[in-house]
Amino acid sequence: MEAISYRPAIYARFSSARQDERSIDDQIRRCRDHLGPTAEQVEVFADYAVSGASLHRRGFESLMAAVDAGTITAIVTEDISRISRDFADAAQIFKRLQHARVPLIGVADGIDTSAKNAKLTYTLKSLVADLYLDDLRDKTLRGMEGRALAGYATGQVPYGYKTASDTDKRGRELGRRIEIVRIAARIMVRIFTEWAEGRSMSAIARQLNRDGIDSPRIGTRHQFAGWSVGTVRAMLRNERYIGVWRFKTMQWIKVPATGKRLPRQRAAREVITFERPELRIVELPLWEAAHARIAKGHPLRGCTRARSRYLLSGLLRCAECNAPMTIVGGANLPNTFYRCTTNRTKGICSNAMGVRAVALLRELFEAVRSQIARDPNVLAAISAHNGNSSAALSDKIRVGEATLAETESQIERLVEFVTAGGRRFDYVAEKLLRLEVMARTQKAELEVLRSTVERPMRKVSAKEIAATITRMSMVGQQDVETARARIARWLGPEGMRFDGRRVTVDIIPPALVQDIARNGSPAPTDVRGESIAIEVQVAHLVPRAQTLAVARAASRS
Question: Quick check: pTM over 0.70?
Answer without folding.
Answer: no
